[in-house]
Amino acid sequence: METNVISKKDLLELTGISYGQLYRWKRKNLIPEEWFIRRATFTGQETFFPREQILARIDKILNMKDDLSLDELADMFSPSMSGISLTADELLARNIVSSTSLEVFNVFLGSLRTFTFQQALYAYVLEKLLAAGDLSVDEGGGLLQVLASHYPKFEGKPCELIFMRKMGISTFVLVSGSTEMYFDSGVKVVKRLDLANCIEELKGKYL
Amino acid sequence: MQNENKNKLDLIFHGAVNATGGVYNKVDVQGYGKINGDVECESLHCAGHVSITGDLIGSSARVEGNASIRGKVKMDKLSVYGQLDVADDLNFTSLKVGGNVKVQGNMAGEDVKIHGSLKAAGDCEAEVFRANGAFSIGGLLNAGRIEVILHGSCEAKEMGGEHIEVRRTGYSTLGKLLKHFLNNTLSVETIEGDEIYLENTKAKVVRGNKIEIGPDCEIDLVEYSTECKQDPSSQIKTLTQR
Predict the structure, then answer these.
(1) Is A195 helix (H, G, I), strand (E, B) or coil?
(2) pLDDT tens digits, one per residue of B52-86
(3) At what angle are helices A117-131 and A99-109 packed, to 10 degrees?
(4) Separation between Cα atoms, residue A55 and residue A61, nearest integer Å
(5) DSSP state of A89
(6) Pairwise CA distance, residues A23 & A187, whole Å
(7) What is the tens place of the pLDDT at every residue in B125-161?
(8) Cβ atoms within 10 Å of A152's Cβ, excluding its own
(9) Extents of the domains making up chain A
(10) Which of A157, A174, B44, B169 could cross-link with B27 by S-S, CB 3.0 to 4.6 Å?
């Protein structure tokens, strides 16, 4: 049996939740349909889940369900853009971006007074990469350009940002979820970011 | 044919009429109507025959005749006493099926009441699912509370929820005579829930916390965690506690 999936039975035993809870969360879209992997086994069909993702998600739901309603949780997990907007000061105050990243953002996308959720996401991704030391300030332009001009095309579908370098030249690629990609040996993949995760983190800071 | 009412128009059919889609206040079909395109309306009443080539969005609909919708349907309150065919997904808050509803896609809503027959090719999600008729769900029937009284044959690929209850009807005199010809059973591959009570059910797997298998069930595997009761007239091939 593969180790990166977990059967429904093992999941319930491990987390201590009941079938009813699992089905309720599925109905409320707290657990995405794509995670229910159906496979034939000797007892008939069984449902499996991607191990890491489902365990992290259930952990989050269990921790937060006392503070937030299920609908609020669903909003947080949904990859669609919520209609909230924030001002630059609020972004700074909530530690979503640092003033350095905000300056870089302003240089490339112009100085904004209020940020839509999408723009806040771009700034947040920029901040993440800059703070981790993966990205230089000059490279920020390439990042923001690819996000601003291509991210809306995904329309909330899961996608991944890949940041790679070859011979010191940086490239950014946005790919739709779970695509397999192979590079030549000269390419160094600096960072792969699942944007759905970024959205979740960002929404976590919003609330 | 169209009266100005506040800002939105009413669309009223008497006789055979072709109309274009759009935003309406009230759509009332007494004869035979065909609407090209998407329709958004406050209320839809169909006593004749209506076919819509696009999506239908609105707050309440009552179908006493025959309606077929080529696109998606999104209705808060939907009651069907005649026949409704939906070629795509169906979303609702409350759905009452007195006649016959067929959905080619998935259906999701809060409250489902069935007195007639429901057929869905995909999944069906609801908070409360009460059936006193027949249904066939091609995918997963997922509801907080599932209460089924079996009339005719019911089937689903999977069922899941907190509380699942399946009972047969009390037989009438006619029912007793026809008992062996009528196939009043529920056939399902897997049933998973917290509390499960079953009668007249054929299933491969039943999993849950508290399970009671009532009369006339045939189940290959029962997995329970706290409690399991079994009626002697039922067959369970394997019973395990986890």
Answers:
(1) helix
(2) 999 999 999 999 999 999 999 999 999 999 999 99
(3) 120
(4) 10
(5) H
(6) 43
(7) 999 999 998 999 999 999 999 999 998 889 999 999 9
(8) 11
(9) 5-77, 85-206
(10) B44
Asked if residues A104 and A137 have their Cβ atoms less than 8 Å apart, the reply is yes
Which residues of chain B lie closer than 8 angstroms to A27, CB-CB?
A: 108, 125, 127, 142-144
Residue in B148, B99, B98, B151 with CA at minimum distance from that of residue B124:
B148
CB B196 within 8 A of CB B214: no
B-chain CB neighbours of A23 within 8 Å are 142, 144, 160-162, 192-193
Interface check for B116 against chain A (CB to CB < 8 A): the answer is: no
Residue A84 scores a pLDDT above 70: no
Report ipTM for this prediction.
0.83
Q: What is the pLDDT of residue B179?
A: 60
How far apart CA B182 and CA A132 sit, in angstroms, is 69
Which CATH code is given to the segment(s) A5-77? 1.10.1660
- In angstroms, the CA B185 to CA B187 distance is 6
Q: Could you tell me which chain B residue has the CA closest to the CA of A18?
A: B194
For the CA atoms of B30, B35, B40, B44, the dihedral, rounded to the nearest 10 degrees, stands at 10
Q: Can you give the pLDDT at residue B209?
A: 92
Query: Which chain A residues are closer than 8 Å to B220 by Cβ?
Result: 44
CA angle, B54 as apex, B52 and B57 as ends, to 5°?
A: 90
Query: Is A27's CB within 8 Å of B209's CB?
Result: no
Q: Write the residue in A9, A23, A44 that is nearest to B142 by C-beta.
A: A23
- Say which residues have a Cβ less than 8 Å from residue A131's Cβ, sequence separation at least 6: A98, A101
Which element (helix H / strand E) includes A131? helix A117-131
Q: What percent of chain B has a predicted confidence (pLDDT) above 90?
A: 76
Q: Do A127 and A144 form a contact (C-beta atoms < 8 A)? A: no
Closest to B79 measured CA to CA, from B34, B54, B122, B109: B109
